[in-house]
Amino acid sequence: VNQVANLTLVSSACDIVSTAYASTKESHPCIRSVCDAAEKGVKSVTEATASCVQPVLTTLESHVAAVSEYASKGLDKLGEKLPLLQKPVDQILSDTKELVSSGVADAKDAVSS
């Protein structure tokens, strides 16, 4: 999970969503109260679940470690094959706009000639 969260694409997307969430929550009092209630609910459920799941995780620790190592290797390979994962969302959007604009300009030139 940490390795996925540290991917530039994922972390920049999380930052964008977090900023939008905070901004929306601050500018709309009704939404703020709903969000506050939801956050408290999620926190309570997380705390309750963590205490119940911990004994199971301790028992399965060696299996979890093996799966984690396998997933880590898979993510490394995925990162090699998809360099896009190492770019922030803003750069991907900018590159995509540039590519589309270039394609449209090329098509326009072809039609004109």
From TrEMBL:
It comes from the Eukaryota. Keywords: Lipid droplet. Its main location: other. The keyword RNA-binding does not apply. It comes from Rhynochetos jubatus (kagu). One of its GO terms (biological process) is lipid storage. It is found in: Lipid droplet. Belongs to the perilipin family. GO terms for cellular component: cytosol; lipid droplet. PANTHER family: PERILIPIN, PERILIPIN-RELATED. The keyword Nucleotide-binding does not apply. This is PLIN3 protein. InterPro entries: Perilipin. The gene is Plin3_1.
